[in-house]
Structure formats: structure tokens, C-alpha cells
DNA sequence: AAACTTATCAACCGCGAGAAG
DNA sequence: TCTTCTCGCGGTTGATAAGTT
């Protein structure tokens, strides 16, 4: 279901994420936040483009991301908001805590859109029509199961007011919005360590210039850089405007 | 059992908005 | 203003699981 790993012309990995990459990214962001997506993979030791890291974090690694099993309430919310907002997936996702725009978009295209077409007059969840594939039937079964699980699930307005406990909040997407407007002191970073990040030791503590140095300019930062390269050559890391990378990456 | 078809969803791509210089 | 850069969004792709013939 995932794309095979491959490498772009700059040597950056594309396709499916390995558990090791996931762990590196998760540990890095939970420890330091995502201060700059473009630069992040370099510091996190990932040969990925920032965009890919961002997507992976938001859609998969971020705490409190719910997966699968949409409740009826969530489904109704999606349908209703889609009627109101159209394909504003990110806006819809904001109303569904734990769901990502990508996931909602996928869900819409694979489940709801089809049903809307089959029964445009009715925005209710409809019974499985005869002749529908077995797989669809399984989906409905899963949906019904999830419906039971979430029998008391609130409407989207209630979902909207969903608030996380202080504990979950501290380990949730709030972290994902941490920017370097907020410059944590080293002891404050232990806050992340409290999350029980197994590989938090992967990253050495930065020196005091770490957060204000936009680019690697000397070897003292090499520990954050994988593969170790001259940062000045890294400038267009995630852009489409450099031919330097084949050589750079081939060094490692 | 094999070949073919369909559904799913993670991930990629391109573009636009907004911020900063 | 204009340019550059980063981020986020929405559309699309493609590998693979699941179903059908």
C-alpha cells in the first residue's frame, strides 16, 4: 500500500518511511519541535525533504492522530462540513480532533463521495445497495462496529469543543506547533524527555547558538547532519533548483 | 490456483498565501 | 514595491491488499 523506497535525483529518499526514520523524526520533533521544516531533516538525521517530513509528522506520527474506524458522528460531520465548505479539507479536519486533512480527503473520496453519488438526495448513511462489492460490505461492517464503539459519540459541534486533558495536550499536536519563536532552554527541553522518547538521546543538546544559527557553518554541528555535508551547499535542500545534491549525497 | 480488477491510503507534486528581507 | 523563502493546502499518483472471475 505504500510506495517503495527510492531516491530522487538529489539522493533524498522518497516513498515509504521505515520505522527507523519514523523514530528519528518523532524523537526529534518531540524534543525540539519543528522550527523549520526545510532544515529539520538535516538536523534530525534524515535524508528526506522537509515537505515529506512535515507530511509524515502531521498525518502519521503526530500524537493523538486517530486512524481508521470513523464513527457515524465523524462521518456526518465530514459530510455536513463538506456541504458547507467544499474541499476545504484542512478546515474540516480542524473540526475533527485527531483526524488529518489527508485522511479525511481519502475517506471522502473512497467512501462518502461514492455514497453521495449513489444517493445524492440523501446525506444520511445509506444501507449497502445490492451488488456492492464485498469489500464495501466489510467497510460498512467496520463502520457499524465503530458506530457501536462510538455509540455515544457527540455530534461535530461537540467534537469541535473537544479539549484535551492537560496531559494529552502537552504531548499532542500542540507540540507540532512549537516554533522557534519559543526558544526552549536546555532544561525546558527535558519536558519532552518526560514523554518517554526512547531515542531522545539520539540528539545531542545544542549549544546556545544552535537555535539562532540558520545554517551549518562549521563541523561542530556535524552531529546533527546526516549525511555530514557542508551546509552552504545544502541551501536549496528541498528546492528544485539545485544540481549539487547528487554529488553531495554520494559523498556519504 | 491464477489472473485480473477494484479499493484503499500513504506519499508525492505543484501552487498560492503570507512573512521576511 | 519587489523578490525570495517557507509553509500549508488540495489534487493526484501508485503500490499493494482484497475481492472477483
From TrEMBL:
Name of this protein: Uncharacterized protein
InterPro entries the UniProt entry points to: Homeodomain-like_sf (IPR009057), Myb_dom (IPR017930), Myb_TF_plants (IPR015495), SANT/Myb (IPR001005)
Chief localization: nucleus
The organism of origin for this protein: Vitis rotundifolia (Muscadine grape)
GO-annotated molecular function: DNA binding
Origin: domain of life: Eukaryota
Biased composition (Basic and acidic residues): 133-150
GO CC list: nucleus
Residue ranges annotated for the HTH myb-type domain, each copy included: 9-61, 62-116
Biased composition range(s): Polar residues: 120-131
Domain Myb-like: 9-61, 62-112
Keywords carried by this UniProt record: DNA-binding, Nucleus, Repeat
Annotated localization: Nucleus
A Pfam family this chain is assigned to: Myb_DNA-binding
UniProt region (Disordered), positions on chain: 113-150
